[in-house]
Amino acid sequence: MAYTKTQVTGILKLYQEKDTRRLALSEEAKRLEQEQKALLDQLSALEVKTDSYGPYNLRVASKKVPRCTDWPGFHAYLISTGNLDMLHKRLTESAIMERLDNGEYVPGIVTDDKVTYKVTAK
Predict the structure, then answer these.
(1) Is the pLDDT of residue 119 over 80?
(2) To bridge 99 with a disulfide, which of 1, 8, 44, 104 should be the other Cys (CB 3.0-4.6 Å)?
(3) In angstroms, what CA-CA distances link 30 with 33, 98, 113?
(4) In sequence order, which residues have a C-beta less than 8 Å from that of residue 74 and are 6 or more positions away?
(5) N-terminal to C-terminal alpha carbon distance within the chain
């Protein structure tokens, strides 16, 4: 498909404007999220319980969340039992690519070409 430099310039200008706006919104969202977390921390420090508070209903719940404190021990357990379902099934791209780049065969892995664009303003 033929294109003109003017067409591409227009697309890149719009892309740059959207990216600038997205980054600003992302920073604002992070700031608001931190402020919300601080407010929840205040409720936690006050040991607020489930109840109605003015026009608001608050439900306080608790659940146990696992955290690993001994990775070598946990890793040994996974290997000995084969209970790999306790891990997320996602690839660590850098570790896999390092092995492939060194000529190592990694079963079940193929590579795809992913086109990327990097737009910068002059």
Answers:
(1) no
(2) 104
(3) 5, 33, 32
(4) 68
(5) 26
